[in-house]
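Hey, I was hoping to borrow your eyes for a little while. For a while now I've been wondering how a particular protein folds. The fold is given in discrete form, as structure tokens running alongside the sequence. Could you read through the record and tell me how the tokens relate to the sequence? Take your time with it, there's no hurry, and the full record follows here:
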Amino acid sequence: MSVLARWREFRYAQREALRASNRPRALEPEPEPPSTTDPLADALPGLPIPDQQGGPTSGGTDTDVNGTAPQGGQRYGQAGRPLNRQSPFFMGFVGALGVLTALLLWHTVGRLGTVITLLVVSFFLTLALNPLVEFLTRRGVKRPGAVALVFAGVVVVFTLIGLLVVPPVVQQGAELAAKTPDYLTQILNKPVVRDLDRHYQIVHKIEAEFNKRLTDSNFIGQVFGGVLGVGAAVIGGIFQVFTVLVLTLFLLSSLPRVKQAAYAIVPASRRPRVISLSEEIMRRTGSYAIGQVAVATINAACSWIMMMIVGIPYAAVLAVSVGILGLVPMVGATLGAGLVIIVALFTEPRDAVIAAIYYVVYQQVENYVVAPKIMQRTVSVPGAVTVVAALAGGTLLGVLGALLAIPVAAGLLLLYEEVLLPRQRRH
């Protein structure tokens, strides 16, 4: 008889003993005399197997701590009934432990939501900048030098955008604060407002409510608390941006090692397929990010030139806003165009009409010439999938979710086409 057959016989004997121990005492048969042969001893020779009373079968005499043999030759006492894993108490206890573990993991993930978000953003930026690093490495630049050059370029771009946006915003904010009383006077002198004030005392009620709020200590505390909250949010945002940049730098420099470590946990039989799909997803994601940034930059530059020619005020700030909104898929360019048109409408209606005509023409050129030329190496996502992904991402993570939704949808679509469909065809 082989070792495997003897092991199966031993396991069968164990199950029979467990069933016998679970039967009521009144229905238990008379105990049979112990067998002279032990299946476990035959299956695993050379190991000291305990006998039915818990003592070793080494052949020696068992003694207690005082050197005397216990009654019946039982050194550790008779073994009790095995634990019944089918009992309601055992199942309920294990189930409660599982629920508590799941709640603990959910609570932990919830508290780490900000950290996970920063890590996802950093990884996305890493995938977006990695094609530039690989382009430099193919030209003979070592990876540390390529990472340093690309990261320095990113820092320079962000610095230029800050220098371009911050001074006009500060200047125009001061101008707006200085002209606010004049704007209020013009509004109050409107015939419609004067007529409403004559019939319903609107101005008097607004002034009374405003004075009441100024003398309310709770309102003042809420205002100062809101200001402090805004300040804390600004400081936190700056810290998070710095954290994302640092994480991006580390991930960009160690991306080959990170990918190698991730691929090492995949079974060897599936590793080539997983590596091929993962590399294609990361390549298309990075290409999509670079392409979307390029399209938004072209839109911002052309918008700035148009506003400078037409004479629309706040051209620099509006151009940067158009570029940032252009990163949002599907609706970002339209939102940027609407913002420019609204600002132009308040200054000169003729300029608003010119801006509207420009954006109608430009978006046709962008949709049919610029974007297809730049996005030709990225994965094509159907329009319905793009809209659903953008809405779902925006609902879950706001603007950040809308930005990350399209690459995620592209990766899932690639897995659907390359993994699920071929498997369904084979079966």
